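> @MW can you paste both from yesterday?
MW: sure, first one:
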Amino acid sequence: MYQDKEEVVLWMNTVGPYHNRQETYKYFSLPFCVGSKKSISHYHETLGEALQGVELEFSGLDIKFKDDVMPATYCEIDLDKEKRDAFVYAIKNHYWYQMYIDDLPIWGIVGEADENGEDYYLWTYKKLEIGFNGNRIVDVNLTSEGKVKLVPNTKIQMSYSVKWKKSDVKFEDRFDKYLDPSFFQHRIHWFSIFNSFMMVIFLVGLVSMILMRTLRKDYARYSKEEEMDDMDRDLGDEYGWKQVHGDVFRPSSHPLIFSSLIGSGCQIFAVSLIVIIVAMIEDLYTERGSMLSTAIFVYAATSPVNGYFGGSLYARQGGRRWIKQMFIGAFLIPAMVCGTAFFINFIAIYYHASRAIPFGTMVAVCCICFFVILPLNLVGTILGRNLSGQPNFPCRVNAVPRPIPEKKWFMEPAVIVCLGGILPFGSIFIEMYFIFTSFWAYKIYYVYGFMMLVLVILCIVTVCVTIVCTYFLLNAEDYRWQWTSFLSAASTAIYVYMYSFYYYFFKTKMYGLFQTSFYFGYMAVFSTALGIMCGAIGYMGTSAFVRKIYTNVKID
């Protein structure tokens, strides 16, 4: 809220090529000049802003609330050859800059070339129109004028003007003009949700049918059992998934890694759910970096979820090295994210980009890992081991594993894993397009209700698909269902990453080492995290299914 004639700050943020959204540099890395006003009220940077490369610098322009400024020169650029070359390079690469007034973003273009590409022009006059409602700023528009040809060894005067106008826009609705309802609420978006719902109904029907048929057949067989003689019983009783009842609850191979992955997947699911709910209630897009700050905070706070599910599963599988499991579970995702960020940071530093993460921010993130995530994970692990760490399987595990019979090629775990991710990917890939566009292009994602629906659909489809895959596997008398159920759901990540290649080459005009490594690096992190989450959801659903069918079977 402003008083009349109170100082209004125009912040200069970053400048960079239009097609490479993440390749941004400090505004004054181009040889722009600064206004005469020097003193300013202090500005605090949040963790989210530091990680996203927000570099706010004071423009030096003197703007006061409701005080019009007639066109006035605020500084002069002494254009030598070096400065001209910098501006020409920026104009050739379609550089544009971002500014903020009262947290409202404004974008402007640096300059333009003539049709032949021989002469280059710089926009020198910033015409600001600011809308106010009561004592608040609700609208900002920038018009770039004053086209001046870039000629070496000349002086270029930079000027600005400010016009204040009364506006009917409410303060709460001031971000609405940045949203794009025609893009996000397009008919295709609605159609894709409807399409996914149809898939859900079909899959739930299929799983119910499998459950009903197998269990009904079993009960029917058992009711006949009394009337059978020994010969019939020896010939006809044991077949299919019932054969492996003595091995189905055998611990998975590599239980330490497996339980760490399941714990991490459960935590990612909890984070996704909470962040989407928060984003639906609060408009997180109205504040710079608030989405990232929220996600980091929620991830740290949900660490006990990781410890609980990972620790209890490891205990049930008879694991002894629980402290090692806890460390791996706690640092699996942070190490993956920080490792990728560290690699990309080297390229950002080489480019002098604003995306280079400051050392202080790195230390802050490491402190969160060691002093928040690790202790909370320890609490979750201890709770998990003590509350649900006892193996209470419905069937006894045989001392000697039974040999796995040969089966057709399409029943092999490797084939099931590759095919398992197709349907979950099919249910989310339209939403992926909207999410990618909001992250890699200039759209603000705000339809979190859609995202919530898609998350629910993804969970149901994933669970149904892994249950069907596991049923076929067990029917082929193969009891290695734990890793198969996890990986068949996690293979969704492979399809998402393949789709990201298609998106890069056909939907964007990105170029250069920095933007390309940034894109594929963070897409790999996103796909892996999604895969671990889907895998954990698939395993949890399948585990309940397997327990259910073997509980209802009478075993001699």
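MW: second:
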Amino acid sequence: MAAGEEGGQAGQIDRASEPAAVAARKKPQGWKCMPFIIANETFEKAASFGVAANLTTYLVKRFGIGQLQATNIGNIFFATLNFTPLLGAFISDSYLGRFKTLAYGCFATLLGILGVTLTASLPGLKPSICNQTSQLGGHCNSPSTLQLGVLYLSLGLLTIGGGAIRPCSLPFGVDQFDQTDEKSRKGLNSYYNWYYSTSTAALVFSMTVLIYIQTNISWAIGFGIPTVFMFFAIIIFFAGARFYVHVPPEGSLFTGIAQVFVASFKKRRLNLPCSRDISEQELMLYNPPTKGRRIFRLPLTSQFRFLNKGAIMRDGDINDDGSARNPWELCSIQQIEEAKCLIRIVPICFSGILCFVAMAQQFTFIVLQAFAMDCHLGPHFEIPAGSVTSISLIALTVFIPIYDQLMVPLVRKLTGLEGGITVLQRQGVGLAISPISMVVAGLVEHKRRDSALSNGGISSMTVLWLAPQLVLMGIAEAFNAVGQIEFYNKQFPEHMQTLAGSLLFCTIAGANYVSTALVNITTKVTARNGNTGWLTENINNGKLDYYYYFIAILGVLNLFYFLVCSHYYQYKVMSFHAEESIKTHAKEEAATEIEIVTSAPSK
């Protein structure tokens, strides 16, 4: 399928299993549940990000940890925090369900934030204060084993909580709407808007007000406020429990995918039905009604057709009730197409990693640059180093409505696409801007270092010199990250929505791990033979600008990789059976129109 033929939420409504499912489940309450879910997400986001956003500053300024070590700790923490949603999605869909997973995640996050607050409050859990002169000379006392142990345990609890909350929060809200009802679907679109708006407001609050309190007033108070926020989040979440619809877990998603490969391998010597028409071939393969609350079915496709052999029916493969006798020898078309979705998406997912490597610098080295610059805004106000990165978030927030209201209608007239450009093209634009931001970052760093060396270690340049690269990072994120979210939600089947919600975080996690590896490798390689490395404890002695240029080169190579992958990517195939059509809009700002068509029950 050509790139311009971008599909929406493909498939057909499965009426065969609908009556029993509707009768068995509680009627969704829609907007009655939203104040509780949105408030929980808003308070949780403000609380967790209020701790995470300023972590590098806290480790360097309050815990006396070296800059490179603090950078690696920050990268590993953010990487783990963003990788655990994949595990959380698996546990939610396979065993606990979204409500229980969210509940456990909220309590884990509360304990984690409380632990970090104690490291900033109790004398026995916080190192003695080290002034800047001693810190630069390397004479500060290192944190004790107990102090580091409590800190690392608290960060571990935060990653567990984030892994449970992030993939489940948005889909849990979706569960509260009846997607077979037109009025409810309109309410669902409003839910998406409110969800992202309040989440963004929470992030801005955390990166400005909370970071200012932490840096300029008190770390204990600055971490205590997120603790209170998280407590409110839990209270509000459980206050709405009587309204919630609880979708039971359907078993391991990954087991079903493994069964597809095993069944296809076992039947590799069999021949598919001799029919050139894929719709006729579908009628000859195993295609039972879907299970649980799933509404949409995926039609059979010809791509990766060797997997279709897993649905070939032999004598004795089917029980009297129509179920597969051995699921490792016979799989449904739905299972096979779900596996194909993953195969198609994974290469595209990898391309987002290096884009986020550039963005990851705003929470590590850019903060360290701000330490060595003039952070004053007027004679009486000083911008906290950790708040500088909020420029990227503000740029993202401002650019999205400009893109949606001005750019999309203009481009739509040229392309004829509802979203102006396809979701893959949107990601590609972000991947192109990302290396440009790194080139700008390198040029600014070269100028900053020269200024710092001529002024006793602190540059006379205002910290606002970092704004151009941060604005470019925000715009790159608006294209690539939001494009990824839209891409995953459109291209993943209904059964995989929790996994789709975790995949963006996994991409960010991969970027943090790659960033940590790049820091370590770059430090080791460039410091050989007694040379001064590019990355040093005192950034004024290194060549951070060279490191930025190196990331820019990797970004260009990654762009070419993405172009190859997107050229061969096939969007999820639509299946039309003209009985009725339903038009909805995707939740993102550049959404394309979706057409969902029902079909007759399977015989």
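> thanks! Confidence is low (pLDDT under 50) at residues 1-24, 574-603.
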